[in-house]
Amino acid sequence: MATPLVVRSTQAVVNGLSMVVYYGCPDVVHTRRGRTLVRAAATAAAAIAVIPDLRDGAAELREASGELRQAREALRELPLPARLGLVATGAGFSALAVLGSVRFEKWAFRTGEARRLAGEPLAHTRTGLVMGALALVTSLIPPPQAGGGGGGGGGGDDDPEVPDPPPDPEELDIVIPDDARELTAVHA
């Protein structure tokens, strides 16, 4: 079995090469249909490269099904306007992401075409190399550890470098005489 570093490196190389092919194909393939087929193949290669991550993600989802049920119940308890607001916000962000992607794709193609018309050789490949390098570098970033929660802090068993904060004595139902509280306040 391959180590995580080998898998991540392979994914990074495949993603990088897929992006170079995806964005650079207009320099080699001149028909729209041909470009669509080449880009579909490049996208499929990138998708196949991340199958191990998808399997891990599916396993994590199965493990977190209880938490997902709790979240679903909490959402059902929200009033209707709040739920509609959440749906509208999600739909808005999704629409912005799609719109931004389409605009970027059109911009990248038009920029490459302008370079090609100016007589620059491999005009689209330049964009492909930049996008491929970005894909390669971002694919090398390891995913957050399962149960780590991302964003730092929290401590616990997930992050051995950050110690747990000391418990509050009042939360533990420990009776501390008033004299002891005064002593700790003086020495603190």
Specify Rg, calculated over alpha carbons.
26 Å
Structural shape:
elongated
How many distinct helices? 7
The level of helicity is: 55-70%
Low-confidence stretches: 152-157
Number of strand segments: 0
Distance, first to last CA = 54 Å
Q: Overall pLDDT, averaged? A: 82
Structure class: mainly alpha
Sheet with the most strands?
Answer: none
Strand content: under 5%
* H/E series: HHHHHHH
What does this structure look like?
The structure is a single chain. By secondary structure, the chain is mostly helical. It has a domain of 105 residues. 69% of the residues lie in helices and 0% in strands. Helix 1 runs antiparallel to helix 2, helix 1 packs antiparallel against helix 6 and helix 5 crosses helix 6. The radius of gyration is 26 Å and the shape is elongated. About 3% of the residues have low confidence.
How would the blueprint of this fold be written?
Layout lengths: L3 H21 L7 H18 L1 H13 L1 H13 L2 H38 L5 H17 L38 H10 L1
Concise description?
69% of the residues lie in helices and 0% in strands. The chain has 188 residues and is an all-alpha fold.
List keywords for this structure.
188 residues, mainly alpha, 0% strand, single chain
